[in-house]
Specification:
427 residues, Heat Shock Protein 90, five-stranded mixed beta sheet, 62% helix
């Protein structure tokens, strides 16, 4: 009393019903399937002989359409719809045995027993109900629909394919989807672990470098500052005392910058951070450098430099202030070396959340001095960019359309350590 669906139609069913979609879309899919299978049932039943007996001449078509309409409730009541399909199939089997021709023609166009829409019901059962319930209904439909008590090469194989076949396909697709998801999860987990290992290796290298800088350079610079201070006190020559004081001041400034760099390189180490945070009692902390002194030095050397300052520089931490000093210093040094006769403009914009630095020089008016141009190592800008990135800033450098050069840096108001990043993440 039923026919088998084509493989292409079952593929369409798997595509529509195998994916979790919204209720409206799902209901529209079920309605479309009910109309399609209803039209198929009408076409097959009208081309068969009519049924006989008290149920009427088209009892088979009424039963088929009843199951087709019940499919609209599959989304909410899959077990009820499966029960209706099983009841119709069982009634047809009993009627064929007790009263041939009552619910199905004695010479039907299709000798099958199951409703044609059974694969749709099986797919929803397997996907929407517990496996124990789904397998119970599928097994019952398979037994009744394949008629093992009267095996037939046309009835039994198609009955099994209409019930066990869709269930096996759905289980396979679900297992394949779960396997692919597990493989994706493993790949993402492996990628995260690789990234964490790389980050850990970089941090270990930075920590080793910070320890070397602290143990070697800090010791040597501290001795240099102490000796220069002692020389300035003990010497009676004004020039010697002045030179010793200059050495002491420069050394103390270098110590402050070294502490800042070590603190940035090793922010997660509490003992090193605490040791680097406070200056050594034997070496007094130096005031943060002012970029205006660099501009005055360039002007006194005959290089036209214009300084444009906006905001209060007191809002910055000492580490950021020294980084600003280094950016301006490197920009002016490069201009003196490679842009002879050019005009330079330094813009500083101090904000509560950071500082913006812009150093722009015009096109050089004459050839640079060969000695000055060849005195650099070529690593100034790359080292400066690394220094800026260490404190959480960005730096850009490049030529301007008029043939000049521009250096732009944006720095935060304070150095973002690991602790401050974690606090900001928890807010």
């Amino acid at each position: 009393m039923s026919d088998v669906t084509t493989p292409g139609l079952r593929t369409t069913l798997r595509e529509h019903l195998g994916t979790r979609v919204g209720p409206k879309h799902e209901l529209a899919t079920l309605l479309s399937l009910a109309v399609i299978f209803g039209a198929l049932d009408v076409a097959i039943c009208l081309n068969s002989h009519p049924t006989t007996g008290w149920a009427g001449p088209r009892a088979d078509l009424i039963l088929q359409l009843l199951v087709d309409v019940s499919v609209l409730g599959l989304r909410r009541f899959p077990k009820t719809v499966a029960s209706i399909a099983l009841a119709v199939t069982t009634a047809t089997v009993l009627a064929d045995a007790l009263a041939p021709g009552l619910l199905s023609p004695e010479d039907p166009a299709s000798p099958l027993i199951l409703p044609r829409i059974t694969p749709v019901i099986v797919i929803f059962l397997v996907r929407r109900t517990p496996q124990r319930v789904a397998f119970g209904f599928v097994g019952a439909l398979a037994v009744v629909g394949s008629a093992p008590w009267a095996p037939s090469w046309t009835l039994t194989p198609v009955g099994l394919l209409s019930t066990i076949g869709p269930a096996a396909v759905v289980l396979y697709l679900d297992a394949r989807r779960q396997l692919l998801q597990e493989l994706r999860d493993r790949a993402e987990r492996a990628e995260r672990e690789t990234h964490l290992l790389a980050e850990q290796a970089r941090f270990e290298e930075r920590r080793r470098l910070a320890a070397e800088m602290h143990d070697v350079l800090t010791h040597g610079l501290s001795l240099m500052v102490l000796h220069a201070g002692a020389l300035g006190i003990s010497s009676k020559e004004p020039e010697v005392r002045k030179a010793a004081e200059e050495i002491r001041a420069r050394g103390a400034m270098a110590l402050d910058e070294l502490r800042d760099l070590v603190g940035v390189l090793n922010t997660t180490s509490a003992d090193v951070s605490e040791r680097m945070a406070s200056p050594s009692p034997s070496v007094p902390s130096q005031p943060t450098p002012d970029p205006a002194t660099l501009v005055e030095e360039s002007v006194s050397a005959g290089i036209p430099v214009e300084l444009d300052v906006e905001g209060e520089r007191s809002q910055m931490s000492p580490t950021i202030a020294r980084t600003v000093h280094r950016v301006v210093q490197e920009a002016l040094t490069n201009a003196r070396k490679h842009a002879a006769g050019a005009e330079i403009r330094v813009k500083l914009r101090y904000r509560p959340d950071g500082v913006g630095i812009r150093v722009i020089n015009t096109r050089p008016s004459r050839q640079p001095d060969a000695v000055l141009a060849g005195s650099g190592s070529g690593l100034g800008l790359s080292s400066l960019r690394h220094r800026v990135e260490l404190v959480g800033g960005t730096l850009q450098a490049g030529s301007t359309p008029d043939g000049g050069f521009r250096i732009a840096a944006d720095l935060p108001a304070y150095v973002p350590t690991t602790e401050t990043r974690q606090k900001s993440a928890h807010r």
